[in-house]
User: What shape does this take?
Amino acid sequence: MTFNSTYFKLISLLTIVLLMLFPSKATSQEFSVYVESGGVFFSNNDVRIPNEGGTKFDLLDLIGTDLNPYFRIGADVTFAERHRIGLLFAPLSVTNTGILPEDVFFEDRTFFAGIPTEGTYQFSNYRLSYQYLFFRDDRWDLGAGFTAFIRDAKVELSQNGGSARNTDLGFVPLINFYANYNINDRFSVALDGETLLGPQGRATDAVITLRYKLNDNFSFQTGYRILEGGADVDQVYNFAWLNFVLVGARYNF
Assistant: This one.
């Protein structure tokens, strides 16, 4: 996994935009930034490209199921107590080398069994979301809304100096949901996610976290996230399940 300073510059720019649109000193507005990191591992990752004529194979034969580091960074603003706008950048790329158990025709070339083959799976994404907190009291916060999801995906195979790749930069609208239960003044449990189900594919990114509020500004969390889904279209068949073990921190301005 690679870390590019361009990513941080982008998030910094988006954060400045949010601050300009929603000044934190304004009444009933709360601005926050957060980071999430930890390890991610795959439960499955089935690929067939092209969908007609390609060979279906398990990409985990190449990239494996070991824990890989990841991070996410984002910002959000809550205004008028019930409206929330958020920005998120979630880069993800895993590369490793393994052995294919059978010959695989991928994109426009054949990759042979029994030969060390490098595989790359990338699923970086940018998100802009709106959420309405339709219920709030001393214990519960419940919300729902929609998310503009831009994916930057790639599957690539390399063997004996030759390679083939399939890339996909596209937009997907998602429905988001949020539920938070305050156990006491310090601890809370939250379920947060985004999902979509359609005839050509599906996508779900959901997380359950235990949160600890250190003070009015700082909070920390730990939890488990899943990212599951894929597409079955004319050119591409790819479905994957990713598991995230995470820690995170949030700062409220």
Remarks:
- The chain is about 10% helix and 70% strand.
